[in-house]
Write a structure and sequence with these properties.
Length: 313
């Protein structure tokens, strides 16, 4: 995995200038490719995979609709990027020899967040590549492991609080079509669930502020990263949801935004549709039964028809 990270982040510079402070590497060229055109219901054929459970050739009826949170209910990654930059500015984080405060640009962060998971590992990786910074916490770059961890911990804690402030500000909207689909599913008697790899406190904050307290309380199942031992792409969270809902995995439809979530769903034996974001649009979604730029034109009946048409590859 580490070798893939280095490969993706060592392409020659693109013609777009952004403030990254990256002396040794630039962006993967795929970040500047044309946006995938909008199409509503173009399905893809699920390829066979030894890691995925076999799919019955009989028709599937949707009994449960399961949403991921980050990237599906809200487009969260740019909010995280903004919160990191606010933390860098607050603590005057500067990586020598650059004179400006560290600022992660949009294109750079799209690549980084898909290659390095977790906030602390992102910063740790960046500082190892570009040199540990000076800050209001340390006038000179920290040299001991203890001081470096103190810097990382402090930045992450401050960033987390700022991210919460952004979510609670009322300025963040759910992605198009999500609330309507949730309401349609409940009105039709379907089970409704949210399964996120993020921490429980973070997901609760997002759901209470974005889908509303009533919808959140009416979920038939809510699972976060804290509830399972293994994170996505491990299928544990979706297998657990199937058991809690009392619904066979073949009758569950998952909505994800990334290949990691797609792998978790298909390994659990569930069909999955993708609503991609700018940072995941170039990923390989071959195993999805359909993909959309957003859910604004997608109705529950459309998802039901997609699931009914799933047959063995």
């Amino acid at each position: 995995m580490a070798s893939n990270t280095m490969l993706l982040l060592h392409y020659p510079p693109t013609t777009t200038t952004t403030r990254h402070h990256i002396p040794l590497f630039s962006l993967h060229k795929a970040t500047n490719t044309a946006r995938i055109p909008h199409y509503s219901f173009s399905t893809t054929t699920r390829s066979s995979s030894s890691s995925s459970r076999s799919i019955s050739a009989t028709s599937r009826a949707m009994e449960a609709l399961i949403f991921d949170c980050d990237g599906v209910i809200l487009e969260s990654e740019d909010l995280h990027r903004q919160a990191y930059n606010l933390a860098f500015a607050h603590f005057n984080v500067r990586c020598s020899p650059f004179s400006e405060v560290l600022d992660w640009g949009t294109e750079f962060y799209d690549v980084l967040q898909n290659q390095v998971g977790g906030g602390k590992p992102k910063m740790r990786w960046y500082f190892k590549e570009n040199g540990w910074p000076s800050s209001t916490l340390f006038d000179t770059p920290p040299e001991s492991d203890t001081d470096r961890e103190k810097l990382i911990d402090t930045l992450q804690d401050w960033k987390t609080e700022k991210y919460k402030d952004i979510i609670k500000s009322g300025s963040v909207e759910p992605r198009p079509g999500v609330l309507r689909l949730m309401d349609e599913a409940k009105a039709s008697g379907k089970k409704l669930a949210v399964c996120s790899a993020a921490t429980k406190s973070s997901v609760i904050l997002c759901l209470e502020n974005l889908i509303g307290l009533e919808r959140f309380q009416n979920l038939d199942c809510f699972l976060a990263g804290d509830d399972v031992k293994e994170k996505k792409p491990d299928p544990s969270i979706y297998i657990t949801a199937s058991k809690m809902l009392g619904i066979s995995e073949k009758n569950c439809l998952v909505v994800e935004d990334s290949v990691i979530g797609l792998q978790a769903a298909t390994k659990a034996g569930m069909s999955c549709v993708i609503t991609y974001t700018s940072s995941t649009a170039e990923q390989d979604f071959t195993d999805a039964i359909a993909k959309f730029p957003d859910l604004s034109d997608v109705r529950l009946k459309d998802l039901e028809e997609l699931l009914q048409n799933v047959v063995a590859a």
